[in-house]
Structure prediction request, 526 residues.
Amino acid sequence: MAEEDILVRAARGTGALGSQNILTSILGLVFFMFFARIVSKTEMGVYGAVFLVYTILTYVGCLGLNFAASHFIPHFYGKNKIKKIHLTIKYILAISVISAGIICFIQIFFAENFSLLLFGTEKYGNLFWITAFAVFITIIGLVFDGFLGGFQKFESLALFRLTSQILRVGVTIWLLLLGVGVAAVFMGWIVFYLLFTVLAIFLILKTILKFKVEKDENDPFQPKILVAFSLPMMVYQLVTYLSDSVDRFIVLEFLGTESLGIYTVTLMVVGTVIMIVVTSLLITLIPGLSEIHARTGLDKISNSIRISSRYIAMVFIPICLGLAVLSPLAIHILAGLTYWESILPLSIVCIGLSFYGFSATIISALAAIGKTLRVAVAVLLAALAEFGFCVFLIPLMGVVGAAVSRTLMYILMFGLLVFLTSKIVQINFDTSALWKSSVSAVIMASLLFPLAFYTRYSLVLLPFYIIFGLIVYGLILIMLKTLNFKDLRFIAKIFPKGEILAEKALRIIKRSPKFSRFAKKFLEEE
Prediction:
């Protein structure tokens, strides 16, 4: 399979997962609005603390093996080593079940201790019992999530996630209405990953049975190779999660609960963008780049980074700047006008977030070539720097200082990733697309801001704001000759039968003198 076809498949997967994440986020938001009205503030605090334990234990128990699955399966497929794919699945499943069992046993055994440590009472011990089983099935579910990503079954992955989310929300709300309380949330996650795992098992078995193992395929494959790859990714996940929380704790310590509430709303919007775009990129690019690396080596990885950076620049930069300009509307929709103090922090964080999309490409490249320790080091150093920024800026600037600290963290993480990766792979961003997309996005934002401001950020006019921004951005891109025929073909391949329609359109353009002159004037030469 050609390099471009692999990236097209990744782009399709990103679109599918991005759409799924949008729907999942909407369902999650609806559930949270209901949940917040059912439980007391004390129960909400208990939920937050237990969920923190649940998340950390899940990351530790998973050992980063979901990343290993999404890397090694396409890597061996690219080398036509089918037996090693079977061994990869076998080893990952065995290690995951053992790890999940140990974590589950520890949490059950120390349930009362967890409750006493966090809440000063043992009465929430039963909640940690339930969470222990949730951790076990979540670890297994995340591994199967990695298997589906490794086989690049992105559309099925999106469908299974959405189906499981619908069932989770329905079951959780039903249990809350029955008076189960906070435990209902973790029972919902058990239902989610049980259904997801069952659906994934059938598809994976169907996929594996299609592969034929060559009789002379006897290359040794040791489980330690998997663990050596996965453990740094576990550190990356943990550090990312903790760094995502450190500024919240400092805000709480210096500014109190009200300021933390303001900042939490900001981060909910940012987290939604990350889930929809960045997480989808990581899930799809790691398998795609792993297969490219296995087939063609490091040189093509460098070229793939360039291609990926081109389309990330065209899509992610205008999203971030557009969100920064329309932040009052984003906050209004999510939390209401009482959280107007979240507007400026959100606009600031969006600037740093624009760098995070490019970081996702580099993280995917490092994971594809097995250099996951460098990812962990870059994220850890950026997190430590963010801690220092927060301690210095939050007392001086309040919540805005926290937003500035996070923005600096995103920029520093990008710089560290570029520095560490450049020692192995040539980092070759598409600088032409980068500066043209940036200029187009800045002009779009500059025109959109006064329009939204003088119409008082009307919620009714939100579709008009978005359409206006898209038109302005697209026109500036065309005027700067950013796009070329190769871009149009690449984009067309993402959609069903799009390539056929694109070829017909290109023939019409070539036959028409007017269209040909327009194309030569406004489309960049390939």
In short: Residues 243-457 form one domain. The chain has two domains: 1-221, 243-457. The first helix runs from residue 3 to 38. Residues 301 and 477 are 27 Å apart (CA to CA).
